[in-house]
Amino acid sequence: MTTPAPTLTSPAPQRLLNSRDYKTLALSALGGTLEFYDFVIYVFFATVLGGLFFPADMPDWLRQLQTFGIFAAGYLARPLGGIVIAHFGDKLGRKRMFSLSIFLMAVPTLVIGLLPTYAAIGVAAPLLLLAMRVLQGAAIGGEMPGAWVFVGEHVPARRYGLGVGTLTAGITGGILLGSLVAVAINTHYSAADIHDWAWRAPFILGGVFGLVSVYLRRFLHETPVFKELAQRRSQDAELPLKTVLREHRLACVYVALQTWVLSAAIVVVVLYTPTYLQKVHHVPAALALQANCLATLTLTLGCVLVGWASDRFGTRAVMLVGWTGLFASSYLFYTSLPSAPSTLVWQYGLVGLFVGTIATVPIAGVRAFPAAVRFSGLSFAYNMSYAVFGGLTPVILTLWLQRDPLAPAHYVGALAILGVLLALMPLARRGHGMRDGAARATMVR
Predict the structure, then answer these.
(1) Which residues neighbour 85 within 8 Å (Cβ) at sequence distance 6 or greater?
(2) Across-strand partners of 442?
(3) What is this structure's pTM?
(4) Which stretches within 115-223 are classed as H helix?
(5) pLDDT at 65 over 90
């Protein structure tokens, strides 16, 4: 008998995080924070943008509908951008596409901050705004799956959950940064100043910081997994997405359903609820935004905690506890409204903490696909699902609220139950090792 030559299925030596890993995590998380800030800052200034980029004599409801329609266009562009960027990420390397995605986000954000308004150039203004949102959507479609794959393939196996959870915290930190910037702008400037010029500052700053992140990502290194794949590229003539659709359909469905749960947690609890508090329960805007800042902070901390716990106790156990906690805390929060300011703030913060369970989505999703098609598989399933459910959720809730003021609680609760059911599926515990290019699945925590 002879000893077989090492292959991609050979287990990587167990090690702890080293200085290169910390640098990779720091630069990746920072870039994710700034890129997601660029993507969501639009929604914090949607009312101002509606007044500037559409005719003044247009009915207010129609102006807001078109403004949010442009926002939704960013979601619809995610699948196409994600598929294209992921294809080249599997073919040319993770690092190149990781840098390209943030460049494609930074430039449109900067341009939005410099765009002339409807009063200056007429109908061309909203069309240019739409074009920039489409580019932003394409960029974020490649950034998030690419970032998860990049970090997941870099960090040691014993710290895989912590690495992916920390990166997810960095990405959600972009929402917190956007919220804080919006609060600062609205606190320090009058409505007239914001309308005249101050609205541009968040976009210009986001674009500049994004370009700085492009430069910083030059110091990252290609993942060891892709380097190994590049040496065995002779068998890889087929399009990665074609392989995914033929051989990994179950993984695609699993990741898509997980993404539906993630989109409910983020879109409803973090992005939609501040408006819901103001419109339905007449909570002052300042209090709603302050509570939202705390919820986003606890969400960010929750992602790190979930990543650490996944390494220690296993992904399935964390999913069961986390999604059950989201179910209970969301009903506690929404059924208590309207409540005293202090109660509202801490209950919103508690819900945000359990929203951190979303970190289990990339933890399980990245390893659901083998290395050769990992970027394409994750990107396709994640972005297609988010485009549908992320885009439709606000519409569903708006219609549902006409009949039931607890619609957000019911929607989040139903999706939390789906999360618990997904935790019971084999893919919650089984997956491809980060260096596993074979089709067989391996047990993971």
Answers:
(1) 97, 100, 101, 138, 141, 142, 146, 379
(2) 431
(3) 0.79
(4) 118-121, 124-154, 160-188, 191-193, 200-216
(5) no
pLDDT tens, position by position, 313-341: 999 999 999 999 999 999 999 999 888 88
pLDDT of residue 235: 44
Contacts 24+ apart (CB under 8 A), 395-402: 397/268, 397/272, 397/276, 401/276, 401/280
Q: What φ, ψ does residue 246 adopt, rounded to 5°?
A: -85, -40
Rounded to the nearest 10 degrees, the angle between the axes of helix 200-216 and helix 19-44 is 160
Name the phi and psi angles at 293, rounded to 5.
Answer: -60, -45
Q: Which residue's entry shows tokens 């030559």? A: 5
Q: Which two tokens stand for residue 402?
A: 């006409």
CA-to-CA separations, 128 to 82, 108, 112, 134, in angstroms, rounded: 22, 10, 8, 10
Is the sign of the CA dihedral 20, 161, 240, 141 positive or negative?
negative
Identify the band that residue 359 occupies on the pLDDT scale cut at 50, 70 and 90.
very high
- AA identity, residue 241: L
**Block residue for tokens 């959950």:** 161
